[in-house]
């Protein structure tokens, strides 16, 4: 039925194709002879389509920060406010990592439901799961209920971290797309700092962990209402149109209306022309075919999957969770009194991450993705080898370790931190974007879980110095991957990226 409907509308699509440009009677992609297509937009109108999806990232970061303090509170005999405070290390691990395993499930669910729901409704579902998970966790009368709440919240994380970069990338003007998606990473770090700060204020309060988790509910409500108010992604609507999932004309008119709301009055009369260009490009590149799992491993989709999965894998296995584990001891050895309190260290490093992510936001659309990746990861390599040297044979030089720690944290936030999420949202062809991004997010959370789980046994087996040298070697291999595999997408529309780079 879908294919017949698609065939019925093919003449309409062919006529639309001429708006995108023809040379000698043949259809050509939007990007011709290196000339870029620029979009008109209103900055004010572009703020809200970014802000409400970015709240999903804020809640993810807040969960990381608040949980580090909540586990201290829930284990306290005097301050937990519960009778089941005497938890084993496995039970504490379930509280800490429950949302991570939920996020893995959310990523798997997104593979099948993302294109059916659409980006906007997926974010609405994520907001509901955030709300339910936070309420269940905060009010949990027993340990099992608390873990269930953490798990539900984690499913919300998986869906939000899948749909938010897609919605932002598909609705943002190409000139500021990198800046906006990088700003989502800024919101994740902002959430972490908020979680650490709020948690440190409540850690000495009776039942403080309940307030820490409950505090995320207003943000989840705002996110849900905001996504209900925002329009659907025009590109998703047009994908539905060419795949025969509705009337082409009706979906085209809806897409034009959505584009006007998303980019404001500045788009003016060009909105219908932009929509026709996108629709023609989708038809030209064969997106009228329904996506199949096997398609992920052929042609353009395989190249996009290699780029995205490689980036998020290297993002996690170059030591990002592990370096922060040593932050308190490194700072303490250098004589910083604040380092005696792990929470204060987390806040200080969180502020550094926030500043460096802000720098990345400002320069990413000017300098491009590749220069920041190559420069940032190269500095990470230096910092990892310095840390390895410190723990192996230079333990009398704690200042060097502090410099290496700060260099690593800062350069990660200039490179892998924001650009990993940015690239995976840009690189996939539209018809495979939902499924491709779900695989990339699954790789991200899966690698995070493996590194977190394997870190302690590897540290005990090999020692911290050897472990950091291994991370440094992996980071070197990631530089080769970036140099030879990862393309530059600065300033290109999503359709231009598919036509020119894949």
Task: Tell me what the structure shows.
A two-stranded antiparallel ribbon has the order 1-2. The chain has 22 helices and 2 strands. A hairpin with a 2-residue loop joins strand 1 and strand 2. Helix 3 runs parallel beside helix 7, helix 7 packs antiparallel against helix 16 and helix 15 packs antiparallel against helix 18. The radius of gyration is 23 Å and the shape is globular. With 502 residues, it is an all-alpha fold. The longest helix has 33 residues. It is 76% helix and 1% strand.
Which descriptors apply to this entry?
502 residues, two-stranded antiparallel sheet, 22 helices, 2 strands
Give a quick rundown of the structure.
This protein is mostly helical.
Low-confidence stretches: 1-37
Largest sheet: 2 strands, antiparallel
Rounded to the nearest angstrom, the distance between the terminal CA atoms is: 30 Å
Strand proportion, as a percent range, falls in under 5%
Q: How many E strands? A: 2
Work out the radius of gyration: 23 Å
Mean pLDDT: 84
Shape: globular
Could you spell the SSE succession in H and E letters? HHEEHHHHHHHHHHHHHHHHHHHH
Alpha plus pi helix count: 22
Strand order of the largest sheet: 1-2
Helix % is: over 70%
Structural class assignment: mainly alpha
């Amino acid at each position: 039925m879908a294919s017949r409907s698609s065939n019925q509308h093919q003449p309409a699509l062919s006529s639309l194709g001429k708006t995108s440009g023809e040379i000698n009677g043949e259809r050509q992609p939007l990007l011709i002879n290196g000339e870029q297509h620029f979009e008109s937009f209103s900055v004010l109108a572009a703020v809200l389509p970014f802000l409400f999806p970015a709240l999903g990232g804020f809640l993810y970061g807040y969960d990381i920060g608040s949980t580090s303090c909540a586990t201290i509170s829930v284990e306290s005999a005097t301050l937990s406010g519960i009778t089941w405070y005497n938890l084993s290390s496995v039970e504490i691990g379930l509280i800490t990592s429950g949302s991570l395993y939920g996020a893995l499930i959310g990523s798997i669910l997104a593979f099948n439901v993302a294109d059916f729901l659409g980006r906007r409704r997926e974010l609405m579902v994520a907001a509901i799961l955030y709300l339910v998970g936070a309420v269940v966790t905060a009010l949990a009368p027993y340990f099992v209920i608390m873990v269930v709440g953490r798990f539900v919240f984690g499913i919300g994380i998986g869906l939000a971290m899948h749909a938010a970069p897609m919605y932002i990338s598909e609705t943002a003007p190409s000139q500021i797309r990198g800046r906006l998606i990088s700003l989502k990473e800024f919101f994740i770090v902002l959430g972490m700092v908020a979680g650490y700060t709020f948690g440190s204020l409540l850690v000495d309060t009776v039942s403080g962990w309940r307030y820490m988790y409950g505090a995320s509910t207003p943000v989840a409500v705002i996110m849900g209402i905001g996504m209900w108010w925002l329009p659907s992604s025009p590109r998703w609507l047009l994908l539905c149109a060419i795949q025969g999932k509705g009337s082409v004309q009706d979906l085209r008119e809806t897409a034009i209306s959505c584009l006007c709301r998303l980019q404001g009055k500045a788009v003016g009369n060009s909105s219908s022309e932009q929509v026709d260009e996108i629709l023609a490009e989708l038809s030209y590149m064969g997106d009228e075919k329904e996506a199949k799992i096997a398609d992920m491993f052929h042609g353009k989709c395989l190249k996009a999957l290699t780029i995205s999965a490689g980036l998020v894998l290297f993002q996690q296995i170059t030591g990002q969770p592990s370096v922060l584990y040593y932050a308190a001891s490194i700072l303490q050895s250098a004589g910083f009194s604040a380092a005696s309190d792990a929470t204060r260290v987390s806040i200080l490093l969180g502020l550094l991450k926030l500043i460096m992510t802000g720098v990345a936001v400002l320069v990413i659309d000017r300098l491009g993705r590749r220069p920041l990746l190559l420069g940032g990861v190269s500095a990470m390599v230096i910092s990892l080898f310095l840390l390895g040297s410190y723990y192996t044979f230079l333990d009398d030089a704690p200042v060097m370790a502090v410099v290496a720690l700060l260099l690593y944290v800062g350069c990660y936030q200039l490179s892998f931190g924001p650009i990993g999420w940015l690239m995976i949202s840009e690189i996939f062809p539209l018809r495979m974007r939902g499924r491709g991004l779900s695989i990339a997010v699954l790789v991200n959370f899966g690698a995070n879980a493996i590194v977190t789980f394997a870190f302690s046994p590897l540290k005990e087996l090999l020692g911290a110095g050897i472990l950091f040298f291994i991370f440094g070697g992996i980071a070197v291999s990631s530089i080769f991957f970036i140099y030879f595999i990862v393309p530059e997408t600065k300033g290109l529309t999503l359709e231009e990226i598919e036509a020119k780079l894949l």
